[in-house]
Amino acid sequence: MFELLKTDSSSKARLGRLTTAHGVIETPVFMPVGTQGSVKALDPRELLEMGTKVILGNTYHLNIRPGLEIIQAAGGLHNFINWSLPILTDSGGFQVFSLAKIRKLKPHGVEFRSHLDGSPLFLGPKEAMGIQRILGSDIAMAFDECPPHGCTSKELHAAVERTVRWAKECREQPRAEGQMFFGIVQGANNPALREECAKQITALDFDGYAIGGVSVGEPEHEMMQAVEMTEPFLPATKARYAMGLGTPAQLVELVARGVDMFDCVLPTRVARNGTAFTRKGTFNVKGGAVKADFRPIEEGCQCFACQRFTRAYIRHLLNVNEILGLRMVSVHNSHMYLEVMADIRKHIAAGTFGEFRREFIANYIPSQKILSARVKHSLKVDDRG
Hints:
By secondary structure, the protein is α/β, with parallel strands linked by helices. Helix content is 41%, strand content 19%.
């Protein structure tokens, strides 16, 4: 159940509470991505200490490895990974986009060739919901088609038609006890299709609604436009989830546009290359400029890495390929994302979100390299983390 607690007077930002079978999620919320049952480089204790309330798992990847028999024998995904708080599972719809070279679209689903060994795998509404039922996630996502940026009008219309039809088929499938169910709106940057898809998906009365088909290669302003096209047609009484987004500055702007929930691989993905997120933008911890810099990654940050280690030491670890280095940047980046969301909630509650938004955006310097990281990686082999 979603409760709308407060709306910001200067924007569409919302303060809410989503109650699930495994706990309450205060929104706006950032959800660390644990595609294969683990948030990369972090353990559950660290996630809990930094305030994580919900993580993601992925239907396609968990179905391949370790397989449903293992997870079912363990008593579900929560037991298997020893995570007692909420889990949201993606349906595999993103893989329809990211694994386009090894899949074929069919009327009732998608034929994949495993990215591991080429073995056949069929994933459709029935299969995606069946897998998520066994996983036992708190929030299951409908199976959809995520069209790529720049696709033809014919391809886009077909993707929306399939997304709506598959959502109806998903709606007919049984779910785990207490499992919530979110629908997904597609339509790229076509206002009429976004509206049409949103109206048809919301008519199915899901527990929440996701804005899909964003951050798939389009410029940032088009991504924002896609959200703006969709949001007016989503009910205020249900949670709104922008899938696969974004940088800290994007999250602030998307909250201002009425979005409640976010996930993104960037905090841990770029950390593995030594890139740190701060409230002023990003910088490369591996760079020579911090060779003798004995400050923390970010002044004032309360994460474990910033409280214990210097930039110079973490740079050394990264450059000699010590695992602790990438772990500490991953800890900092994830903590930073969660702290930004906590600040957003605090300022919405206090009625000062507008001031916070202006100051944050004024100080944050975006990196075009970071903005394109998710898509470039996805076009190779998608692991969403």
